[in-house]
Amino acid sequence: MRVLVTGGGGFLGAAVCRMLAERGDQVTAFQRRPHPVLDAYGVRQRAGDVRDPGRVRAAVAGHDAVVHCAALAGLWGAARDFRAVNVNGTANVIDACLRAGVTRLVHVSSPSVVHDGDDLEGVDESAPYARRFLAPYPASKAAAERLVLAADGERLATVAVRPHLIWGPGDPHFLPRFAGQARRGRLLLPRAPGKLVDTVYIDNAAEACLLALDALAPGGPAAGRAYFVAQDEPVPIVQWINGLLAAAGLGPVRPRVPAGLARLAAGAVEHACRLVRARPPLTRLAAVQATTSHWFDLSAARRDLGYVPRVTMAEGLSRLAAHLSAAPLDES
Fold first, then answer.
1. Number of compact structural domains in the chain
2. N or C: which end of the chain has fewer CB within 10 A?
């Protein structure tokens, strides 16, 4: 297929581009700036921003399918910025697909669209969208997912994939932050006994996107649906974080902060930083994610997409350690 990957230079987008190219698809990446690694994969690159309808239409034209990975992610920021990229940008992609006669659209969403601050223990896709959100990011991703699923029809088959806490070689988010804080003695983890989280290794998340693409057909079982994607290995969050730190050659960190205190402190810090227009070192979303369970029933993804997390957590951590031994971690 001729496949356009928006956000192809990002962590997940680049992995999707690599896998598509490896299996013989003609791949074009659409992002704001060129990325040399994509040249090595034989991926064509087009510069542009999903907020620009004209650039999006030009990029989508001539393709059979689109994997929409481009997004603004983060625990903090202005709601208007998240909406401009994640909601309006997604609307531009949908419009471009319909104009160009593209028949398949895979949208990368997030499990945070159903997380309102309570435990999510083995929930499936019947879980409703959250009625309140702790940050603009999950609110914008929920709105974008609604647009994508509502666009499913005879002309365009759509599906939303919800990978959870993606990690692995090249991760620009979790490991650099955890490692930097740990080296400075500032990684304060809350005590959350009995709370489990599931995550997903980068190759498993990327493969899920390809499986969703292949399963898409107008009226097919995957069309118009969302799917949770994870390792299917729920663990205490401190175990996952310490696994990442060990891969980077760092010692483990013990959880010391009471969960209730962490949440109270996060609210106070957010309020104070909002008054002085500063970025908070701790947010309510981060505190809640660290003190609640969030793991999912993957039965639907297994049934409809054929999804199996082929890389186990142990194997993923081994691959990460090998990668970091050859490429030192950038914690800037």
1. 1
2. C
Question: Helices marked H in the chain — which ranges?
Answer: 11-22, 36-40, 53-60, 79-82, 89-100, 136-150, 174-183, 202-215, 237-247, 259-276, 284-291, 299-300, 313-326
Which is more confident, 192 or 88?
A: 88
Model pLDDT, residue 271: 75
In a domain, 174, yes or no: no
**For residue 98, is it within any domain?**
yes
A 10 A CB-CB count for 221 gives 14
Q: What is the dihedral of CA 284, 285, 288, 289, to 10 degrees?
A: -150
- Angle, helices 259-276 vs 284-291, to 10°: value is 170
Secondary structure of residue 212 in the 3-state scheme: helix
Inter-residue contact 76 to 283 (CB < 8 Å): yes
Contacts for 249 with CB less than 8 Å, ≥ 6 apart? 324
Instruction: Please tell me the total number of residues recorded for the chain in this structure.
Output: 332
CA-to-CA dists, residue 74 to 140, 207, 274, 283, angstroms:
11, 24, 16, 11
pTM above 0.90, yes or no: yes
136 belongs to a structural domain: yes
Q: Which domain holds residue 208?
A: 2-164+201-230+295-310
pLDDT of residue 331: 57
For 55-67, the DSSP string reads: HHHHHHTT-SEEE
DSSP 111: G
For a pLDDT cut of 90, what percent of the chain falls above it? 73
One-letter amino acid of 44: R
Any domain includes 182: no
pLDDT(179) > 80? yes
Q: Order the strands of the 225-229 sheet from edge to edge.
A: 44-47, 26-31, 2-6, 65-68, 104-108, 157-163, 225-229
Q: Are 97 and 90 in contact (CB under 8 A)?
A: no
- CA 142 to the chain's CA centroid: 13
What whole-number distance in Å separates Cα of residue 103 and Cα of residue 295?
32
Here the CATH number for the domain that contains residue 16 is 3.40.50.720
- Count the neighbouring beta carbons within 10 Å of the beta carbon of residue 108: 31
| Cα 113-256-115 angle, rounded to 5 deg | 10
